[in-house]
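cron nightly-structures :: item 1 of 1
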Amino acid sequence: MGKDLKINKAFGFMLISVLGFSLMNLTVKYLHRLPATELVLFRSLVSLTLSLLFLWRRHISPFGNNKTYLVLRGVFGVTALSIFFYTLQKLPLGSAITIQYLSPIFTTLFGIFFLGEKVKHLQWFFFALSFGGIALIKGFDPNITTNLLLLGITSSIFAGLAYICIRKLKDTDHPVVVVFYFPLIATPLMAIVSLFNWVTPIGWEWLLLVLMGILTQIAQVYMTKALQAAEINEIASFKYLGIIFALGFDFFIFGVEYSYLALFGIMLVLSGVILNVIYKSWIKRRSAKRQAQA
């Protein structure tokens, strides 16, 4: 009974996190007048302030130990987020987020080369399922140009690289230090880039920028709470509920209509990613059980 309550609690936290990220994506969509790099800058300023405050209160050095991977995590994360924000502004939310969901697949692929991990035969089938879904979405969603599709996939690749760095840092640096390096890299870099294409926010845009930062922080905090409240394999798949919010926003707010084949493509992408998560969790549990019996 206690375990069921833990999972229910974790699910509640994850649901808040998913809603927070979904509403953040919605604010980005409404801020289409501002360059994506400028949005990353404002988000980074909020994250920089909150992360520094957290580290200062706990007397933790913000600069960490494994600086090479910390810097790489920051660079890869900034690149991924900047491109993702751009695709969010140009594509329907559902399409942009579905393409971004490919990042766990790239994390697994990069894990072969950088972490010495092995990919099972069945996982290759799951990957093919997801990329087949992307092909369907591209073929039957007229909003997706080849350039935007390639940008979305590029964002997923850099997100996958960022996750690899995070996994490399799990035993050397505090999680908030890892988080801190994102705004540490993003703030000066995006400030310089924004000088060349600056668009001054007006009226309600200021409110949305602040809201974007707050929603991001809420989403990150509750995702951390969810991961601490239950085993990651028990709740990892729940984060993909974000696609339901995205499709709802597209339909009810922006009047976007997807063809049945495009929706089927989205389902294929999600199926491949979620099946891969479940399969990896099953392998991990089976391995742990065998070690316990040995």
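cron nightly-structures :: done
Residues 260-293 form the longest helix (34 residues).
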